[in-house]
Specification:
Distance between the termini: 77 Å
Largest sheet: none
Helix content: over 70%
Strand content: under 5%
Number of strands: 0
Structural class: mainly alpha
Length: 286
């Protein structure tokens, strides 16, 4: 909960003039891409994939609603930081010990469960790509201890941002590229976006998708990432909003792509079930 008015780590210029042109704003985008890389975790991608598998592309509207809500919340927190020169953690601490204690309990629980789930999910993916190379638990240790610890040990925001940009590029090519190759129906995508529908049994999936867009720690962390970039004054608000908007657009694209992939699996499963039912009825026909 340190005061943000002191010098921050990293090597970005601190007295840099705010970006005024769209071209320069796009060149300075960085923290928003970290939002896209860290805000769509393994659980969020599985949630959107499961929602697509169960209900197709009907719940696309939930992704856009979640992105709009998370953008508004994150923008408000960052605007408050730029106006007061204090982070949201300082704000909670100023409310009293009960607020700090509640957050610490929440942080301990979420960190424990997420810290166990995220490396395991990443290890499962690597094991599937490189079967037999290393045991599952070794890949999990490598992700949690080696890869994560090295980034934290280096402690330089510029390195962290560059690594996240590479991961965003890989995710975009693989996830969004696969969704495009599956050739989804543009009419169904438009219908799922413009006409909100909640079929029977889809409410838990819709709430999970809305809550999963952008994550939770991302909302708090964004103010620190902005600080490391040197965006500390209200004059940087237009740049921050552009950066954050790009981040949540990319986040929404990732989750829509997973929904499309799940929807295609839903269509394939339904087609196989229909074929099996037809074959079964034919076999019983004398």
């Amino acid at each position: 909960m340190a005061d943000v008015r002191g010098p921050a780590g990293g090597s970005y210029a601190r007295d840099e003039a705010p970006a005024t042109s769209w071209r320069r704003r796009l060149r300075l985008i960085g923290p928003g891409l970290i939002v896209a890389a860290t805000g769509v975790g393994a659980g969020d991608m599985v949630t959107s994939l499961a929602a697509g598998t169960e209900f197709g592309t009907i719940l696309i509207w939930a992704i856009f609603l979640g992105a709009i809500l998370k953008f508004a919340l994150t923008e408000g927190l960052t605007r408050w930081y730029m106006a007061t020169n204090t982070t949201v953690l300082d704000g909670w601490h100023s409310m009293g010990w009960w607020a700090t204690g509640y957050f610490m309990i929440y942080l301990a629980l979420v960190t424990f469960f997420f810290g166990a789930a995220a490396p395991s999910a990443a290890a499962l993916a690597v094991t599937a790509m490189f079967p037999g190379v290393l045991p599952l638990w070794v890949w999990a240790v490598l992700h949690a201890v080696v890869f994560g610890f090295v980034i934290c040990f280096i402690g330089r925001y510029r390195v962290f941002e560059r690594v996240m940009e590479v991961f965003v590029g890989i995710m975009f090519v693989t996830v969004v590229g696969l969704a495009v190759l599956l050739a989804p129906s543009l009419g169904e995508l438009a219908m799922g976006t413009l006409v909100p529908r909640i079929p029977a049994g889809s409410l838990p999936y819709a709430l999970a998708v809305i809550g999963g867009v952008g994550g939770t720690f991302t909302l708090v962390s964004y103010t620190y990432w902005v600080r490391e970039r040197g965006w500390r004054r209200p004059s940087w608000l237009p740049m921050m909003r552009t950066d954050l908007g790009v981040g949540y657009i990319v986040t929404g694209l990732f989750m829509v792509a997973m929904l499309v992939i799940g929807g295609r699996s839903f269509c394939s499963s339904a087609a196989r079930a229909s074929t099996a039912k037809l074959d079964s009825s034919r076999s019983r026909t004398p």
